[in-house]
Design a protein that fits this description.
Length: 275
């Protein structure tokens, strides 16, 4: 799965998970739209920003957007043009991210490799995608991008993130994943099993392994040890990919996230030469 030979391989398909939290989502309400993915960031919907980055990166082939209301992307001329050209497909999302992922895998058995991200990640850029893809070791079946608390805090001390606490470091997810091979459906299957028991923590712990859960909560396990254990438990070769970009971990979950993202994008876009 190394990016070194990507030019000679079939490009991965990109999957954008654009599920909604419903009409009460505070970010959607702030943006004055019915669906969070359509919230404008500096005047351009988040979903549009994510799809355009993927389409222009040179790292992915076809792009699939999963959303509860498939008519919404077609209301954006740029996405409608990608659809008309066959580069973009819009499909109905399932009722959770894990089930949407499983649906994509089952509906598209012809796809050999996937890059998965979310519609609320408007800071995603080609450099992040390239670093992530090229850092994945050969033979990997599942990869997750993670940024350290140190990387994030140094760049944006004001942002509040949710951190996974390993023995060796604290990390935040970056809403960026890769999957490859015939075993990929095992990942959302395991995720769905955990979701099924989300109101019964002891059952979630049983799915993962009680001793493993206790060791993790006590911060006795390193990041690499946890991913080795999960690989055995799920039945796929899974790895974490360290991201040196603080922005990779900043998605738009809260109104304050939107304000920070707009500030970052304004600074980024003002630095781009116009001539």
């Amino acid at each position: 799965m190394s990016g070194a030979g990507i030019a000679g391989e079939d490009l991965p398909t990109a999957l954008v998970l654009a599920g909604s939290r419903g009409p009460d989502d505070p970010v959607a309400a702030l943006g004055g739209v019915s669906h969070k993915a359509m919230v404008p960031v500096l005047g351009r919907p988040m979903l549009l920003r994510v799809v355009e980055v993927l389409a222009g990166s040179g790292l992915v082939g076809r792009i699939i957007v999963q959303i509860e209301r498939p008519e919404l992307p077609a209301s954006l001329p740029e996405l409608a043009a990608l659809q008309a050209g066959g580069r973009l497909a819009v499909e109905k999302a399932a009722d959770s991210p894990s089930r949407s992922l499983l649906k994509a895998f089952r509906d598209h058995p012809e796809v050999g490799s996937w890059i998965v991200t979310t519609a609320d990640h408007p800071l995603l850029d080609a450099a992040m995608l390239r670093h992530f893809w090229q850092a994945i070791p050969p033979g990997t079946e599942a990869a997750a991008a993670l940024a350290s608390a140190q990387t994030i805090g140094r760049a944006y001390p004001e942002t509040r993130r949710t951190y996974l606490k390993f023995r060796d470091r604290q990390v935040s997810g970056c809403n960026l994943f890769a999957f490859r091979g015939s075993n990929v459906a095992r990942v959302p299957d395991f995720w769905i099993a955990l979701e099924r028991h989300r109101k019964r923590p002891w059952r979630m712990a049983w799915e993962i392994g009680p001793l493993v859960t206790l060791a993790f909560l006590c911060r006795l396990l390193s990041e690499a040890q946890v991913f080795r254990i999960l690989s055995r438990r799920i039945g796929v070769r899974a790895v974490a990919i360290d991201m040196p970009f603080a922005e990779a971990a900043i998605d738009v979950d809260k109104p304050e996230d939107l304000a920070l993202v707009e500030k970052i994008l304004a600074r980024r876009e003002s630095a781009v030469p116009t001539g």
